[in-house]
Amino acid sequence: MRPLFPLALLAATCLAGVVPAGAVSTATGSPAYLTEIEGTQALAWVKAHNTQTLSTLQADPHYQPLFQQALALAQDRDRIPAPSMIAGQVYNFWQDSDHVRGIWRRTSLDSYRSAAPAWSTVIDLDALSASEHANWVWKGADCAEPTEHLCLVHLSDGGEDAVTLREFDLSTGGFVKDGFSLSRAKQEVAWVDDDTLLIARDWGLEHGHATVTPSSYAFVVKQLKRGQALGQATEIYRGKPTDMSVAPTELVDGDGHRVSLITRAVSFFEFEFRVMTPHGLVLLDLPKKATVEGLVANRLIVKIDQDWTPKGSAMVTAGSLVSLDAGHPDAPPMVIFKPTDRQSMDTVSVSRDRVVAGIYDNVRGQAWVFTPADAGWTARRLALPDNVSIDVADSNIHDENTFFDVTGFLSPTQLWLADAATGTATTIKSQPAKFDAAPYAVDQYEAVSTDGTKVPYFVVHRRDLKTDGSNPTLLYAYGGFQVSMTPTYSGALGKLWLDRGGVYVLANIRGGGEFGPRWHEAGVQTKRQHVFDDFASVGRDLIARKITSPDRLGIRGGSNGGLLMGVEFTQHPELWKAVIIDVPLLDMMNFETMSAGASWVGEYGSVHVPAQRRFLAGMSPLQNLKAGVKYPEPFIFTTTKDDRVGPVHARRFAARMEAMGLPFLYFEQTEGGHAAGANLVEKAEEQALEFTYLTRKLMP
Fold first, then answer.
1. In a 10 Å sphere around its CB, with 0-12 CB exposed, 13-18 middle and 19+ buried, how is residue 444 labelled?
2. 126 contacts: CB under 8 Å, gap ≥ 6
3. Where is the signal peptide (predicted)?
4. Would the pTM of this model clear 0.85, i.e. be above it?
């Protein structure tokens, strides 16, 4: 593929005196060394651009006040500690100014319900990192059910997805001597019992062939017994090298039933499920687009993401939740929940004897409990607040206690504790208000997209808003992977944006899951232009309503949303004054060979399919930058340690803009992974940089 602009121009417009241009990739028009994520030349390029960006934004008089506010909010000790029930106690991972990397701690449920829980530290990540001269980032723990005293702790170097696993004994409070220890890899593990693991990871070359897929995930599952070395593990299942991944799961219910499950991900959205039995693996008769959510009363709980007609049964509508008899998986499924056209099931979990779920109706949350019965399932809606977001925060198989997060744009987050058996629910934690919500209101509008589809969006604004087009407005969306964007309380958004005169807009565009699988399917692969058109239509609707104008309208998105921003930047530069492109995909002609990019073919399509290649070529932000176009100056943000999307997309995009003489700001955090900063200070710094940029562009 020829470069889209002369190589002489590239050489002439690079940062003078920073790093030599080196070889230039004819496929991307950017220096080839930028693909070496931690290469010397690449990091020198990053350092030069970081210095330039920081000298611009941190010198702005708005930066320090914004940073101090963001840091105070991030480190505020009155945040709600997210609960995780393990072995009858509440566990929580916590970071603050005294615990920069964080502590894993626990308390009793009674104590947790109090205003000042008596926490005891289980693992101090700062102390562990110091003793081992490491930069450990917490990635969670998997504990062996039902006893849950043995756990595999996930530790990441700098925030990347690859983790080191170490066995920890909660009863003794220490790592197990000579216990299970798995070296760094992208890996999935399940406890079969206290002495047996199922592991999917990179097993190295076997018979001259790799054991990871092009997506960088494992496709071989092995069983490891206590005392065995990794090389002694026994193979249980081998997928195909062309798969996205293969992973094990162990499901346990409140009655002690167990199901060992092997999930083969053919693509990001297509799966095969195999149950381990004494006679070998048994393939479940499920549609490809389905997700196993848990086990209740020896019934597998399955979310169905495509219309499905089981043998001898009526059609099951996409978005439904069903149960399968784990002892007789060939028996007809029972429907637990069937959505309407404006409903979606967002979070699903299991308690001892029930299924609990967060369900959205026109992007407004509800909490439901489903109980198995002889003839099917009964349903009960819990009495939680209306017109907010409601999601399951945690539940466990030992009792009916279920935590729900309840939040809204102007409603500080609350944590509710429900008894799934009785249906009673009470507020046990409330986040104090971080800004005065009285002056503000939330409206929900609909924009009409280019094909006539109505696209809802929320506007958070001052009650005395003047519709004269003068309001600084930040528009956010995601639009992919069936992920729903719902109202959420943010102290940073309130203090750093709303209180300073800004308007915030959240768009529920296609590609997401706000209205179930069909809303997502309408925006995948070659249909993805619907996603981009929906977003632009919301922008135009805001302008038509005179809420804002192109000179006062900024947009922001990350990851898949970063791709959205890149496309909106290149397709509609006239609509936006500010564009924040976070941890993005931008080179869609090469994304399949970058980091975990091959895993997203189901979402984006493949350059190896002619029709999909043509579409990708026509929308890929990197390849569609054009000389002579007046683009806004974007702020491009990424992280070196992101091993999911990777920083190369952002680097190439910035390098091409640089070669074309286009203005931009670029910042690459050196740690933190795909979730950006590894600690609260770094996350506050990112927020301050972004809001300083927005202030400079939209609040002159």
1. middle
2. 99, 100, 101, 102, 103
3. 1-23
4. yes
Q: CA–CA distance from 334 to each of 309, 369, 400 (Å)?
A: 12, 16, 22
Mean pLDDT of the chain: 93
14 Cβ partners below 8 Å, 6+ apart?
Answer: 21, 658, 659
Annotated catalytic residue 674: yes
Do 653 and 568 have their domain in common? yes
Please, which residues have CB within 8 angstroms of residue 452's CB and are 6 or more apart in sequence? none
Query: What is the amino acid identity at position 278?
Result: P
Residues 517 and 638 in one domain: yes
**pLDDT-based confidence at 330, cuts 50/70/90?**
confident
Which residue among the candidates 84, 484, 559, 595 is catalytic per the annotation? 559
User: In this structure, are 467 and 576 located in the same domain?
Assistant: yes
- pLDDT band per the 50, 70, 90 thresholds, residue 675: low
Q: Are residues 465 and 545 in the same domain?
A: yes
Angle (nearest 5°) at CA 560 between 557 and 561: 15
- Shared domain for 32 and 171, answered yes or no, is no
Question: What pLDDT digit, counting tens, does each position of 402-434 carry?
Answer: 999 999 999 999 999 999 999 999 999 999 999
**8 A C-beta contact, residue 21 and residue 31:** yes
* Owner of token pair 């964080």: 102
Given the residues 62, 99, 154, 674, the one annotated as active site = 674
Element (H, E) at 466: none
For the chain, how are helix, strand and coil distributed in percent, rounded to 5? 25, 35, 45
Total domain count for the chain?
2
559 as an active site residue: the answer is yes
Given the structure tokens 């106690």, which residue do they identify? 89
CA distance 578 to 434: 26
Q: Would you say residue 358 lies in a domain?
A: no
* Domain span holding position 121: 83-185
Q: Indicate if 36 and 136 belong to the same structural domain.
A: no
Judged against a pLDDT cut of 90, whether residue 1 lies above it is answered with no
Could you tell me the two tokens for 342? 């404006």
Q: Where are the beta strands (DSSP E) in 110-159?
A: 120-124, 136-143, 150-157
Q: Assess contact for 416 and 404: CB atoms under 8 A.
A: yes
547 and 474 within one domain: yes
What are the residues whose beta carbons fall under 8 Å from the beta carbon of 500, sequence distance 6 or more? 695, 699
Residues 52 and 118 occupy one common structural domain: no
Q: Is the dihedral of CA 661, 667, 670, 672 positive or negative?
A: negative
